[in-house]
Structure formats: C-alpha cells, structure tokens
C-alpha cells in the first residue's frame, strides 16, 4: 500500500524553479534591511527568514489576558514570518477549526495588525511578500490519524492537499507549517514514509495548482534535533526537496526527567569538553551539522532559538553546577529567569563551553537554564557563519514581551529583548 502511494507522488518540478513571482514594485533594495546582506543570504529571494511562533490562542486576544502576545504587540520590522499555532486541526481529509474563537475575525486581525502594518520592507528581491503568515498544524494524534487513514484510502492525501491549498488561497495565507512531534513515534516503518508522502502531495498541489494564485505557497516543518528522532521520523534527502524550509527545534536537549534527574542546558550551542558519546550530540552545533550532512540545503535550514527555559529544583542548594542532582523541574520563560537574576541572591553563570548561561538563587533550590541576549546573539552569528536560511524564535510569548521584569536596572524599558537582539544581530553586516 505504501509503495503505491509513494509512486503517485513523483516530484514534477524542481522546487526552486516552481511558482510564478510577481515583479517587485520596489526596485530599491535599500528599502529592505535584509537585502543589505543579500551577498550573504543563501536564499533565492535574498532575505533571511525570521520565523516567529505566535502560540497564544486567539480565544484570549482582545481580553488583555496576561502573558498572551497579540499581533499588534509584535514590534515593527522584526519577524518576517509568523506561524499561527493552535488555530487549525485536521478532521478526516480536511482542515478544521475550533469554534471557541471567531477565527475569521482573528485572521483579519493578524493580516491587518501585523502583515499589512507599516513596514520598511514590503517585498523581497524576487517580488514575493516580505511578511508571510503560515498556519501550523501540530496535533500529533490528528496527523497520525491522517496518514494511517491514507494507507487504506489512496486519494486521501491528495484531497487533504487540495483542501489546504484552497484554504490558503481563500484566506490569503502563505503556507502550511507542520509541527508533528513526531512521525514514526508509534510505527516508524509506516509513519515515516507516509509523512514523506504527505509532504510530496502538498508540494505537488501547491506547485502545480498555482493559477489563478500568482504567489508561492510555502511548506515548512518543525523538525527534531536529536539523532534518534531524526532517524525514525524523516527520510532525507527526499524530504529536503519538498519543504521550503525546516524550523530546527534546537532546544529541549536537557530538561528535568525522572530517569536523568540532573541540571543541564535547554539549548547549548556547543558540547561541553567532558561530554563524549551520545552526550556530545546534545547541542545546537551537532544538530545543524547533522542536518547539513544529511543533505538538507543550508538555505533550507532555519535555526530555532528558544526564548523559554527549563527550571530545575536542586537536591542540595549548595550544589548548583551543570549536572547537579535535581528533584523536579519544568518549563519556564525569560521573564522568570530575569526574576531570579533581579533578586538579591540571583547568580548568572556563563558557561563558556556551551555558550549559554544559567541562573540560580543562591542558597535556594531554584535553578534555571535559559537563553539571554548574549547567547541568542551567538546563535545568530553561528547561523550566519553556516549561511543558514535564517532563524526561528520559539516563542514570542516566552520573551519578556511586556518589557518590565528583564528591564530592571536599565534606563529604558525594552519589550521583546530577545527578539530584538536576534533581529539586530541578523541585520549586522560582516
Ligand atoms: C510608514 O512609515 C513611514 C516612515 O516612518 C511614514 O512616512 C509613512 O507615512 C507610514 N505609512 C503608514 C501607512 O503608516
Ligand atoms: C566518556 O568520558 C568518561 C569520563 O569523562 C569516561 O569514563 C568514558 O570512558 C568516556 N567514554 C567514551 C566512550 O569515551
Ligand atoms: C512567564 O511569564 C509570565 C509573564 O508574562 C508570568 O506571568 C508567568 O508566570 C511566567 N512563567 C511561566 C512558567 O509561564
Ligand atoms: C552564596 O551564598 C554563600 C553563603 O551565603 C556565600 O558564601 C557565597 O559567596 C554565595 N555565592 C555567590 C556566587 O554569591
């Protein structure tokens, strides 16, 4: 059954040459700050991606709900691609939406308050829209059902792809982002090829059915950073042909788990000197190199940078190095890391091996691994040295978006300090 499905989806055109680009009304590249580095950017449209995940459900918008970022809050000239999470699901062979918020109104809000808002670079070099809105599907159960049903029903992926394309054309959105964590988790021998078949079907539909749509529709995948998951989830280099880019989830390398109850970095850039064997693979550098070695073109690799962190509860307050015994822990955000740093006993430690900080409240059990302005800047520099397609920020909500807690002791309040530092670093010429 699988081989039948796979045979149908022969790639019809080379990805880079597909899609009809409009001629840009702006011939003046100076308008586009990202065009400054067009000699650096390896992407064909001349712009590096700055993909941002908007994770707070629109059900909470317009209610001044604490902790929820709305489209109007996103600073000008920062993100150029917005991934809308928690909007859509899949039912049968179609996209479906929840009724607990009026998604059409919310969509108009994103388009009006973010995409069409004044921006200094409306078009890319190739005439494509400089600000893109992608919609993310990410319910693992629903995705699993989709590909399992497709094993028995050969036309299902095709119908799904047509439905997605129609939805994108109708709403004016730019593409589909798939955040399936993870294909192959349950039945690798089936889900792995079926996931590839899904991507192939989407690519075929997006590319061949363009008119009367004159714009390109994009496909991105939020992909794993660890060897085990990569190998059971994805088929490379084929997958690299179908996607426009991959959002590398270069984080969650360490977090509290009962079977490894020790402190560690959520997203270390480099391996520590004393790490060997599989432990030396738990870092951003290893994952990036592995994807490139696996055949993903560098311009299709987008480096994920977390604004969130991992908290740990130390067993003994006085033992607070990397690898210290922990009792528990969880997810946390930059704001919470700053609260510790602001406290009288807050200590920041920069790990020069891993190129990321951690913080603890001296004399207590509170310990947090996080990224700050220094480490996100290093990661951007790294992505540019490797000439990757850009960076992804996960997520807007976890940054200090109100600009209060992390600005303590500074002259000016700064909203979204991590996002702003990432963008500033992207714009530097070198
Ligand atoms: C956009 O910004 C520019 C420069 O700040 C300004 O001159 C222009 O009027 C703005 N346009 C809109 C539609 O707000
Ligand atoms: C890894 O390092 C530890 C101690 O640092 C050592 O005992 C072990 O033999 C090393 N393993 C390998 C595979 O090199
Ligand atoms: C994250 O940040 C918000 C403030 O925006 C705060 O209220 C919340 O408690 C923080 N921590 C976690 C774990 O979400
Ligand atoms: C932590 O607290 C102990 C005991 O008060 C003190 O001796 C030590 O210097 C503190 N460490 C830091 C890094 O502040």
Secondary structure: elements and pairs:
Layout: H1 2-8, E1 49-54, E2 81-84, E3 88-91, E4 94-97, H2 103-115, E5 132-137, H3 140-152, H4 156-171, E6 175-178, H5 188-208, E7 218-223, H6 227-233, H7 238-242, E8 245-248, H8 284-293, E9 301-306, E10 308-314, E11 326-333, H9 334-342, E12 346-351, E13 356-361, E14 366-369, H10 373-385, E15 390-394, H11 417-427
Parallel strand pairs: 1-2, 1-15, 2-5, 5-6, 6-7, 7-8, 8-9, 9-15
Antiparallel strand pairs: 3-4, 10-11, 10-14, 12-13, 13-14
Helix pairs in contact: 3-5, 4-5, 10-11
The structure holds 2-acetamido-2-deoxy-beta-D-glucopyranose (4 copies).
| CATH architecture label | Alpha-Beta Barrel
> Treating each run of at least 4 consecutive H or I residues as one helix, how many helices?
11
Task: Characterize the main sheet.
Answer: 8 strands, parallel, barrel
Helix vs. strand class: alpha/beta
Rg calc: 22 Å
Name the bound molecules: 2-acetamido-2-deoxy-beta-D-glucopyranose
Secondary-structure element string: HEEEEHEHHEHEHHEHEEEHEEEHEH
- Strand portion: 15-25%
CATH superfamily: Glycosidases
In total, the number of domains comes to 1
Taking pLDDT < 50 over at least 5 consecutive residues as the criterion, the unreliable ranges are 1-30, 35-39
Counting DSSP E segments of at least 2 residues, the number of strands comes to: 15
Mean pLDDT: 89
The CATH class, by name, is: Alpha Beta
Kindly state the percentage of residues in helix: 25-40%
Measured distance between first and last alpha carbons: 52 Å
Main β-sheet, spatial strand arrangement: 1-2-5-6-7-8-9-15
Shape: globular
CATH topology heading: TIM Barrel
């Amino acid at each position: 059954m699988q081989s039948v499905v796979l045979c149908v989806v022969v790639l019809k055109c080379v990805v880079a040459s597909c899609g009809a680009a409009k001629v840009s009304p702006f011939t003046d590249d100076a308008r586009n700050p990202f065009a400054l580095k067009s000699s650096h950017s390896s992407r064909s449209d001349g712009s590096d991606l700055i993909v941002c995940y908007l994770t707070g459900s629109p059900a909470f918008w317009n209610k001044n709900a604490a902790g929820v970022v709305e489209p109007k809050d996103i600073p000008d000239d920062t993100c150029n691609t917005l991934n809308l999470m928690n909007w859509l699901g899949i039912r049968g062979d179609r996209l479906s939406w929840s009724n607990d918020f009026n998604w059409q109104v919310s969509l108009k809000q994103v388009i009006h308050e973010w995409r069409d808002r004044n921006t200094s670079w409306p078009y890319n070099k190739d005439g494509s829209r400089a600000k893109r809105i992608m919609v993310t599907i990410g319910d693992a159960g629903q995705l699993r059902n989709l590909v399992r049903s497709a094993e028995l029903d050969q036309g299902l992926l095709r119908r799904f792809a047509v439905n997605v394309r129609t939805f994108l054309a109708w709403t004016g959105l730019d593409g589909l982002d798939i955040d399936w964590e993870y294909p192959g988790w349950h039945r690798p021998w089936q889900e792995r090829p079926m996931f590839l078949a899904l991507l192939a079907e989407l690519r075929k539909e997006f590319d061949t059915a363009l008119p009367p749509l004159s714009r390109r529709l994009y496909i991105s995948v939020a992909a794993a950073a660890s060897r085990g998951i990569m190998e059971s989830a994805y088929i490379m280099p084929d997958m690299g042909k179908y996607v426009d880019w991959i959002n590398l989830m270069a984080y969650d390398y360490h977090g509290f788990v009962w079977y490894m109850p020790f402190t560690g970095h959520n997203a270390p850039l480099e391996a520590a000197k004393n790490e060997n064997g599989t432990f030396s693979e738990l870092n951003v550098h290893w994952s990036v190199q592995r994807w490139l070695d696996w055949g993903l073109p560098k311009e299709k690799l987008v480096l994920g940078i977390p604004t969130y962190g991992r908290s740990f509860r130390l067993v003994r307050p006085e033992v607070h190095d990397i690898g210290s015994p922990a009792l528990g822990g969880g997810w946390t955000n930059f704001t919470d890391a700053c609260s510790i740093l602001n406290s009288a006993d807050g200590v920041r430690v920069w790990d020069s091996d891993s190129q990321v900080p951690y913080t603890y409240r001296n004399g207590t059990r509170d310990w947090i691994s996080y990224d700050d302005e220094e480490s996100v800047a290093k990661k951007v520099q790294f992505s540019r040295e490797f000439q990757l397609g850009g960076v992804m920020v996960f997520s807007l909500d976890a940054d200090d978006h109100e600009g209060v807690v992390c600005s303590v002791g500074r002259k000016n309040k700064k909203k979204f300090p991590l996002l702003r530092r990432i963008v500033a670093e992207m714009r530097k010429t070198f």
